[in-house]
Structures are given as C-alpha cells and as structure tokens.
Amino acid sequence: EICALHCMPCLQPARPKRMELQSAHPVVPMKDVGASLMNQASLMSQATATEAQAPRALDPSQQHALRKRTQQLRQQQESQAEARQHDAQGHGVRAPCILTAAAAAIINYLLMFGLCCAYGMIMFEEENHATHRALGVKMNLATALIMGLTIALFSKVAVGIGGPDLTPVVFIGGFVQKIAASIATSMGIQSCMDEHLQDHPIECKEYHAQLRATVIFTTFFSSALLGLLFFLIGHFRLSRYITYLPTSIQEAFLSCIGYKVFKYALKFSSFEPTQFVPAACVGVPLFFMKAYHVGNPAIVMPLGLLVPLGVFYAFMYIPGVDVDTSSLFFPEMENVEFWAIWTDSLGRLDKINWTAWAATMPDLAIMVIVTLLDCMLKISSTENKLPVKPDKDGEIQLYGVGNTLVAASGSSVGYMQLKFNVINYGVMGNVSDRRAGVIYAILCGISFFGTIEHFNYLPRFFLSALLFFAGAGFVAENLWGSRRHLSMVEWVEVLTILGAFIITGNLLPAVAVGMLLTVISFVMKYAKVSAIAGKPLQGSEVATPLRRSDLAMQQLQHAMGTWLLVVKLKGFVFFGSVKTVTDEVAWRMEQEEADNVPLYRRLKFVIFDCTQFDGMDASAAKAFRKLVSEAKAMHVQIIFSSVDPDVAADMKFREIITSDTEWSTELSFAVHHVQKQAQRYIRKVNARWLGLHPAFQMHDDVVRAQMAFEPFSSVLMSDCSRFGCPWRFCGRLKIVKHQTLLWEPFERHPKLYLVHSGTVGIYNKVPSPDKQESWDSPLALYQQGSFLNIEMLAHRRTRTAAVALEDGELICWSQEQWHRMSNERPMMAKAILQAGMRQSMQDFELAAVMPHVGFTPRQLNNMMQQLRTALGLAANGFYVALQPNEDVTCLPMPEPLRQDLTVAFRTYCESSEKRIRPENVSKALMFAGIFGAHLSLGEKPGFSEAEFLAIGQEACMARLSVEQVTALEELFERFDEDGSGFLQLDEQRTAIIHMTSNPDIDYDEVDGIAVGWAKSCELDKVGSPLVDRCTFLAIMSRFIKKHENTWCLLKGLLEVIDPKGELMNGTDDLARFRFTEGLELAAVRLQPTRLAECLMQMSRNSSTNMEAIDENTALEMAREMLWVGSWRAENRFDGMDIAGLLAAMTPLRQYDFETQALPEKPPREALELGTKQTSPLDAKGDSTVGGGVPGIALDLRNATSLEGALAAAAEKAARRSHLVTHHSSEKLHRAQTEDEVSVTITVSEKEPEDESLKIRIYRFLEEPGSSFAASLWSYLIDASIILSVFTLLLQPMVDPTNASQGSVWLALDWTITGVLIVELAGRWAVCDATGRLTHLQFWALPGNICDLVAISPVPLETIIGLHAQEMRLLRLIRFTRLARLARVARIGRRTRVAPPTAMVLIVIYGIYLKSTV
Fold first, then answer.
1. pTM for the whole thing?
2. Across-strand partners of 572?
3. Which backbone phi and psi does 1028 adopt, to 5 degrees?
4. Could you give phi then psi for residue 715, rounded to 5 degrees?
C-alpha cells in the first residue's frame, strides 16, 4: 500500500467529466483492499496441506529439474574445490610485482610467437607458398602487437592478453587455398615448383605477386568487417543476441576448428609418428595443466616449453648420433620486412585479383558467424576462469576499435585470448596488473619490426606441440566437454556436424548440415512445447469482473462450464506446435458429435486468449482458418481475445477472423459476450418454468416488483430492519455513462453507496475520457444490490477509481446520515453492515478465483426455509379460507409499521386533496416495506389516509378465524410453562419452531417481527420484552401473512409435482396438507416424465400461443430444462428437487428487468407524525375495512381472491412464455453462436439518424449488400475489371499492326478505364462519410494505391504517348481489386480465386513480355 501510495498519483491520467457529483468516491472492491493478504493466506494453507500429504512420485519435468539442480550443485562444489586447490598451490591473490609481470609477459610472448609462426604456416600451408609464410607470421605478430596494447591499456580485464586467434586464421588458410586455385585457373598454370617454376618463371612470379596482394586485401577486408561488427554489436548492446544460435551448433562449429587445428598439427609433423607423438605428449598435457591449474604457471609453462626443446637439441648433438635434421625442421624462412604488408598490397593494387577475392565470400560469411561466437565465448569463459566480471558489450566494442588498426595493417582479426589470460593471472596472482600485457605486446612488436629468423631454430614438433596445446581446448571443452551439459540427441548433432566436416573437408557443408539440424531440432523441440499456457479452462473456471449473486453465478457457471472453453495461447505458434492447439478443440467437438450429445449441452464458444501470444506462421494460420471453418459447421464460435487491432487486421487478412464479433481487446469482454448468450438462453428456459403454473409467475412478479422498486431486497430482509423508513436516512445520485467519476484512487470519501440501476466499473486508475477505446478491462463491475465504498465505514482511503458505465441511479449515505441511522435505527444499520460483509466475502472469493459450484447459495437457503415454514403453517390450518359469515379477529399492526405507512401516504398523496391515487397505492406500500400485496383497487379515484392505513392493515396482517385463534392460544399456554401469561423471546421462537416443524427457521425473522411490538411489551429483569397473549396473536398474524405468498408458491409446486396428492397424508385439501410420515420437503422431486406432461398440457392450452408438441419432444424439452437447473449435486437428469425448481424460477440476475426511478425522499411534513393514533380496525369485524370501503388487499386464502391473482399471473405468463417446439429450440441453440453481438467495448451509442446523401452514396459504392442497385453496380465493376484483363490478354493474339483494330482497343480501354476512374473518384469523394477515414488516409490503403496504379497506363499512353509494353502490365494490378469483394457481406465467396488468378496471370504475362523484349 505504501508503494502504491507513492507511485499511483504520478500515473493518473486526465479525469473524466463529473456530472451531478461534487464529492463522491464509491466502493473499492475488497479484491483490491485485502485480496493480496487473502491470496497469501490461501497459498500458505495450500502449501501446508501439500506438505502434509504423503510423498508422491515426481513427474518427468520435475525429475529433469531435480537432475539439473543436482548438476549445478555438483559443478559449484567442483568449482569451490578447484578454487581451494588453486589457492593452495600459490595461485591466490598476490600484490603486483614487476618480476612476476615480466615473467608472465615472457611466457605469453614465447607461446604467442610460436603460435604466430604456426598461424603463418597455416595461412600458407602449401609448399609452393612457403615463400609467403614469413609474411603470414608478420601479419599475426602485428595483430598481437596492436590488440595486445589495446586490451592491456583499455580493457576492463586488466590481465587480458590480446592477439590473433586460431579460428579466423583457419578460415584465412581456406581463403588462401581458394584464392590460389582461382589465380592458377585464370593464369592457366599449375604448381610453381621445381620444373614448372623453371619453365614458367615470369608466370610464377606474377602468380605469387597476385596471391600476396589478394591475400593481404582479403585479410584486410575480413578484419575490417569483423571490427565494424564488433563495434556495432558493443555500441548497440547486441551481444546477447549472438548466443541465440543453439549451443549444440556452436559447440559443433568450434569442434570442427579443433579438428582442423589438430590436422594442421599432424601436417606440421609430416604425419610422422616420431614427431607428432612427442608433440602431442608436450602440447596436450601442457593444456590440461594450464586448464586445471596444476602447479605454478610461472614454473610449469616455461618448463613445458623449454625442457622439450632442450631435450631435442641435446638429442641432436649427442656424440656419435647421426641425425637427419632436414625432416625435423621447416624449410628455412627468410625474414620479411614489416612494411611488406603495405608495399605488397597498397603499393600493388593492380595485382589484386578481384575474381579470386570474390570466391571467398561464402566462406567469409561462415567466418563471421563462427568468429563472433568464439569471441563471445572467450569473454564469457574469462568470467568463469578469472575472478573478474567483464562488460561484454564494452569489451567487444573495444575489440572493434582495436581491429580498425589491425585491418589498417592488413593483419588477421584479433581479440582477447582465454588461454593467455589464465596463464597471465596464474603467474602474477592478481587481476589488476596491466604491465604484463604491455610487456608482452612490446616483445611481439620487437619481433614484428625486427626479425623472425629465430623461427628457423624451432623444430616441427615444437610448432605441432603448440597447435596441440591450442587445439586441445576445442576438442576437450567443445567436443567432449559439451557432453556434460548437452542431451544425447544434442551431442549426436555435434558429432553429425563434425562428421560432415570430416567427410567433405570443408566447413561450408558442415554449416549447411548444422543449419538443417538447427531447423529440425527447433521443430522437434518446440513442437513438443505446448503452445497452450496451462490446461484449457472451462467456462466455470474463468473469473469475470461482473459481480452477481451466488445463485445467479452458479446458474451461469453451470452453462458456461459446458458451453465455453478458454485456451490461453503462448509464444509463437508455428507448423510444429499448432496441432496441439487445434486438436484440443477439434477433439472436443468431434467427441460430442460422436456421442450424440444434445445441442444444448455441447461446446458453443472457444476463446483463444492471446495475452502471451507472439504470432503465428502461415501454416499455423491455415490450421486456425480450418479450425474456424469446422467450428462454424458445428455451430461453435471461435473468439480471439487480448488482441490489438493490428493483430486483428492481420487475422482478418488471413481469413481467421471474419467479423468483429470474433475478437476482443480483453478476455473479460469476450467472456462477457458468452455470458450474455448464456443469460439469454437461461432466461428463455426460465420463462418455460414460469409458464408451468400461474403461482410461479405470481411469485416472479412479486420478486421483480420489489427489485424494480428498490435495491434492498437482499439487504433489509426482516421487519425490524425496515422499521423507521430507510428513505429518511439516504440520498440519491444519478450517474451518466462514461461521464460520472465516482472516486479517484487514494481519496477519503464520506459516503456509502448502493446501486439501484446502471453499472459502475472499478479501475486501477482513472480512465482517460478522450480515449475510451483504450480503457483497460475493469477490475469489477457492480450492478443493482451492490455496495460501493464500504471503506467509508472504516474511514479508509480508496485504492481504485470508479466510473459509471451505464446510466443509472445510486442510493448514498453520508457519514452524518449513517451516524443518525445507527443511533435511531441500529437494526437497519446492522442489516446493511451484514450485507456489505457478505459482498466483501464474495469479492474475496472472486479475487481468489474460488469456484462457486458445489454449495447452496444463501438466497436459496432462505427460500427453502420459508417454504418449510409455510408448509408447517399450512399443516396447522392457518391457510384455510375464511367463511363469508365467520367471525374473524383482526389484530393491530405494529406501531413502527403504522408510522411507516403514514410517512408513505404523506409522501405519495396529492398535497391539495390529501388523497392517494390508486396507481400509487402499491408504491406507497412498498415504500413502507410491504411487498407482495395483491390489490383490487376498483374504480375509486383515491384513498384517504385512514383508508390507506386500512389497506396496509389488510396487506400486512392476516385475519384469524376462531379456530385459528384457539390453536394459537393453546400454543401460547403450552409454552407458558410458568403460567405468568407471558412468553420470553426464546420461548416464542421455540413455540413457532414446534408449530412449523422447521428447526432451521430464521431467528432474525421471528425476532424482527416481535420487535414491532417491543415498546408495548413489559420487560424482564435483563431488559428483554415479554410477549403477552394478545401480542403473540398479533405477531402470529403478521407471521402468517408474511408467508402467504410463499404458501401459494408451495401450493403451485405441489400441484405440478404431485397433482394426484400421492405424497400427501390422505387429504386433497392443499390448505391443510402435510407430507406422509418420514417424507421431507427437500426430498420431493419433479420427475422428467411429469415435467413432460406439464409441457404437453401447456402446449395444448390455447392461451399460451404455443405449438403443440408430442410426447418425445416434450420429454427432450423436459430433460433440457432439468439440465439447465442441474448445477446442484442433488439434481441430475433423473429429476429436480424443490430447491432446484426455486432456483430455476428465480430471475438470473437482478438487472433482468426495467427498474423504476428511486422513490423521492419523504417531505419534512411527512415525518412530523401527530400524537393522535388512528386505530385501523376494531378487534373484530368483517371483510370490509376503512368505513365501508370494499376489501382492497386480497386475502389469498380465499378461493376467489386466489383465482383472481393467479389469473392475472397466468395472463402475464402467456405473454412472456417462449415455449417452442424442439425443432425451434434447436434453431435457438444454433442461432446463438451466430448472434451478431459485438464483443468489443462500446464507447458511445448514438441514436439512429436519417442517412445523408453522402452516406447513401458511400453504402452504394462500398457495401454491395446494402441494396439491389449497389449489388448491380458491384457486378458491373467486377465485369469491368475482368474485361480489362481479357483485353490485355487478347490484344497480343491479334494483329497489333492493324490500325482499325488499334482504335477499337483504345476505345475499349478508355471505356473500361473511365468506369473504373469514376468508381475510384466516387469512393474517394465519400470516404469520410462514416468518419473512419480522411481523404488523405484513403490513399494510404494498399488496395486504393493498386487501384490508382491500375488505371494509370491508358491515360499515360494516350497523353504522354508512352506505349511501352511493360506499362500495360500495371493493368493486372487492378485484378487484385477483386479481393476487395471478400469483404462484401453475403454476396458469396466467389472472390477467393481472384488473388491467385491475378498472380498467375501476372506471372504468365510477365514471362511473355520478357520473352518478346
């Protein structure tokens, strides 16, 4: 929170316009306030539970990770042991010393001089090129001098040693061979040796001059090119991209270099075992001693070099031993002055053979790649071998600068040498002394500027030993060492590339094999890597920002779990990995088809979430296009989410996406689209359930009426929480779509909100009002019944922003209003707090993506409890109809309710007449908290206050017969154990539980009713009210009336489930029913066969306007209806229990209907109640109220009243019923996937206006499907295009010299071109009609550019007189104009062949033109 507090303010964009809001900051969803803590706690608990489980076997991926980690630990241990050994042998850090620096410099110089001599021999390895070997040695010494000084003085690695490297030298040796062969071929000579040299002295002299100049120039070019690449890579920090080549291929290339170096070493020894065996015995151990830090390098390296030489010379000069030295030494090498590098190249530019130089270009490309890799590996390995951390980009940039001078000297490219770095550090014992590198470079410079004739004293085996020493690293580390970190397959790739190099003797085929293996390896590896992130998610597993009730959420998740599949794509999908994606969806569709799954239970939507998606190749696009086509054939819609418009445009071009309903910028938008389709379907099935019985529709009308009037239906559910008129303590706030900003992040706002209508979106930051199309997906969406800014109650700041996304109205409480309500009406404040806590817990669950399926929602539990209570009341005869002349008892209503009715009357009455109109009576009753009242208002123009109170009395209190009063008095006496004439609240609850046989009765409901009479009751010692006999009767009267609608609903349920009364205890009177012994209400089930009978009966009812259905169709429809309600474990296809029926009849969401405007706040005079109390009725009376006014509030226990209420409900059910035949139902399911409902967020909605002339012209030209005339015009343009192409093809087939024919062709060309010009000009003139394009943007579209180019040849030929045949080819570009028809709505797909046909024609005609030039 502290981080967010400091960072968020600087990220806030411009604020949207505030409308009618001065200081409002609604709810921060609990997801944002504390979800992180809940998630952490959940993860910790999951981790604890996981740890407590029994050990289990590791899967292959975990085994691989374990092996890798074990290997890393082993390598760390080896490195630590090696470091300890290194320090123990005197390799630890020592202070800089000139003596150790000089010693290290001399050792490195001796090695480098020997290697430079070997490199010179490699460059000119052929015997006929022996005269140039001294030049090769000088060129490498120049590199050692320049790079040695550059690295010693400027490198971050102070002990770094620079010089020529074996890798580029090997390639230069290959260059020399190619150059020599090319020059020899061009001059027609062979080997310039012996007799051939004597016979052709002039030609051989010219040959060597060209060879010398061309090799120097080739070396210069390669060094300059690599130096430039080094500099650019370092400057732009691109070094990380160099290593993207697979490791196995890198190791293979370097292994090939090692192989060739060893080959040179053997060749230097003349393949004589007597020479290369000693050389190998010297060079190879010397490498391993250096690599594994055996001994002190200051001693080991000099001894390793000098001792073999001493032994060799000692053997030569043993007395009496005759040794043939000619085979032990190279031919004598004469010194070459250093300036020969320039004089033999720049001084003789005419001798450079450019043809021979061009022949080296293929090898140069390979040299660049391998040298870059080798250079980067040496820098990386320096970090591993030495206690330094070089900057790779800085180092390679330095090499680029140094190689600029190297190239100027015509020398081979150079960079830091790892072997020399290790020796330098080992001898000096520190990483800070630069003097060794400087001395080393100076010594190399002395040899470069001086003489190299001391090379003649080095035997062959010594140079071979140096090459073995240099090449051993390639073989030991790259070929064999790679086996430790490569898989067997990857190591086989290394061997394969090396084998190709050995067989062909050329690195180019090896590179080709390497590239081929790279492609194959990539395909094989990444084809196994799934392009799907995680497992595909069912629709029930996808979180949605829209907050709904638990009941609605479970209903939706049940349908979504079957209908929707979300596949999260990741990475780049190509031809090798796309199959795993498409097969996942195709298998599901094919399996459902094979199993003959009913349409309503099949997959209908597939969302490909492209959040981690990087793109696809052509093969993947083709596979997706095929999948989309197959899905459409099976009535499945494919949607791509988290797609930006550019990617969507590319998918449209590839015909993967065909309309805007198939993509969205956010996953939540796509899921919301699917949810709307599911909601529409569930609502239609809900209408079928309501049509089964008028009581169902009556119950639905009661629920909808309350929701339309107020948002308190799930908040203030008890009488005591309603007492006191909640409208006195709250305000109202109207919100405007995309304009009302409710709050910003980190503001403290003193208001609590409750949504009545509209939608409020919660965002991390304030969205920009000017860029609504770029708004992020909201964190949460709140609709009716949702609280906002619960943090106000805890005086906390908001962390998010809230914007109105739909017009609507909110209820709000300021801190002052909340304080007053808490003091005056604490039960009301308590109920609001409890509802807010329930919503907060639901937000927590949604934030943790906790599944909702599997538990019974609180709303459904309450409904079942009320049904059980109504069942118990009915079993005791409290819903028996009263006889017309029977004496009845009318109990007084509670005083708080009477006051609320008075306030309601004064709020809705006409101020002048003090009477309330009939149309406002129902609203006034709901204003006072009385819902579900069925009124018969008649034709009376208005009602006085006394009359209205009498209506309220009848609407909230049940009249009791003598028998019912007697039963209640007996109940009272039974539980008045002490005979005091009073019941305590707990005794009253026990009495009601006993009477209703419902132990789960809601105590808040019972106590909430009793609170209404609390002020008139005596109190016990602890201050609890004592209920006397009359008060108990009044409480029960209210209790019975409150469950009257529930009894009607239960009556309807039993009539549908058990029309013959087989479940009842031998009675047909449903007003006094009770189940047979042992049968519970929850166990009663509606069977499919019984539901089918009801559907058939409904179809035969003429008032329902339904088609007749047969028994099989009705049974299938019954199974479908049962499936929709089968989200509970108790309900499957064998039937549905009472709870399932209640859920099926409940509106899917609280916003499924038109809400009314919130009632006005009571006027001040309405709250000023007089002291005189109006007695609503006498203790006894008849069925009339209010001084002779006929009974207005219907008593549903009366058969006539009940029939009237049910008849009105049946009429509504008939109007709303959408029952269709199974055939129509099948059409419904298929039509849903084709519903043209946009998935993308709608920024603004404008009322349709009359189209202007410009828009009509635009539709005529751009939308052929808009009218018949537009379609004809489209066909005319298509015909003109085709005719234009035909004229182009037919003209060459006739006599082009015929003047009369020429005029005919010209007239035809102008006619066709004129039509196309008019069409293009018209489209340009009206392109801005819809506001999508400007006139300038019109010409930026590729299709329009093609149109313009296509019509240009004829005017140009006529006006300018340009008659070149090539210009006529431009006309074919116009043929691609047919591709535009692919966007024409529902004309056909005839244009698919147009683009390929145009391309074929262009190729054919282009070939023809080319052949006739």
1. 0.62
2. 615
3. -90, -175
4. -115, -60
Task: Map residue 788 onto helix, strand or coil.
Answer: strand
Nearest one of 641, 615, 363, 558 to 1125, comparing CA atoms: 558
Expressed in angstroms, the distance from the first to the final Cα of the chain is: 77
Per-residue buried b or exposed e for 372-409, using 16+ beta carbons within 10 Å of the residue's own CB: bbbbbbbbeebeebbebebbbbbbbbbbbebbbbbbbb
- Contact criterion met (CB below 8 Å) for 379 and 391: no
Instruction: Give me the helices (H) in 200-352, please.
Output: 201-235, 239-242, 247-268, 273-291, 297-316, 340-343
Report the DSSP beta bridge partners of residue 1185. 1189
Selection from 743, 713, 741, 746 nearest residue 863 by Cα? 713
8 Å CB contact between 643 and 652: no
In this prediction, residue 242 carries a pLDDT of 66
Residue 216: what are its φ and ψ, rounded to 5°? -65, -45
Q: Note the pLDDT of residue 1235.
A: 37
List Cα–Cα distances, 1218 to 214, 285, 600, 1099, in angstroms: 91, 92, 16, 11
Contact, 157 vs 339, CB < 8 A? no
Give the neighbor-by-neighbor strand order of the sheet with 1018-1019: 982-983, 1025-1028, 1018-1019
Structure tokens at 760: 């409020």
Amino acid 1187: pLDDT: 38
Angle between helices 435-449 and 98-123 (to 10 degrees): 40
Beta-ladder partners of 564: 605
Both tokens of residue 1084?
Answer: 């009663």
Neighbours of 536 (CB within 10 A): 18
The answer for residues whose C-beta is within 8 angstroms of residue 820's C-beta and 6 or more apart is: 729
Chain-centre distance for alpha carbon 393:
34
Which residues 6+ apart lie within 8 Å of 262 measured at CB?
467, 468, 471, 475
Beta carbons within 10 angstroms of residue 40's beta carbon: 10
Q: What single string gives the DSSP state of each residue in 327-342?
A: GTBPPP-----TTHHH
1212 CB-near residues (< 8 Å, 6+ apart) = 697, 701
**Pairing, β 960-961 against β 780-782:** unpaired
| Mean pLDDT score across all residues of the chain | 77
Cα 500 from chain centroid? Answer: 45
Cα–Cα distance for residue pair 536/819, rounded to 1 Å: 50
CA 73 to CA 77: how far, in whole Å?
Answer: 6
Given a cut of 50, whether residue 49 has pLDDT beyond it is no
SS (H, E, C) 891-909: CCCCHHHHHHHHHHHHHHC
pLDDT (tens digit, 9 = 90+) per residue, 544-589?
Answer: 777 877 778 888 888 888 899 999 999 888 887 888 888 889 998 9
CA distance 276 to 471: 14
Max Cα–Cα distance, the chain, nearest Å: 156
Asked if 547 contacts 783 with a C-beta cutoff of 8 angstroms, the reply is yes
Per-residue pLDDT tens over the stretch 963-992: 999 999 999 988 888 888 888 888 888 888
Distance, CA of 1083 to CA of 813 (rounded, Å): 44
Q: In this structure, are residues 844 and 35 in contact, taking their beta carbons and an 8 Å threshold?
A: yes
Q: How many other CB atoms are there within 10 angstroms of residue 910's CB atom? A: 11
The CA dihedral of 100, 103, 108, 111, to the nearest 10 degrees, is -150
- Shortest CA distance to 337 belongs to which of 453, 221, 487, 229? 453
Show the CA angle centred on residue 600, arms to residues 595 and 606, nearest 5°: 85
Distance, in Å, from the CA atom of 1413 to the CA atom of 1405, rounded to the nearest integer, reads 12
Mean pLDDT of 1262-1278: 79
Give the span between the Cα atoms of 1271 and 840, in whole angstroms. 57
Instruction: Identify the CA nearest to 402 among candidates 410, 418, 413, 391.
Output: 413
Q: 100 and 309 in contact (C-beta within 8 Å)?
A: no
Question: Closest Cα to residue 636, out of 676, 604, 673, 591?
Answer: 604
Contact between 877 and 964 under an 8 Å Cβ cutoff? The reply is yes
Question: What is the three-class DSSP state of 344?
Answer: coil
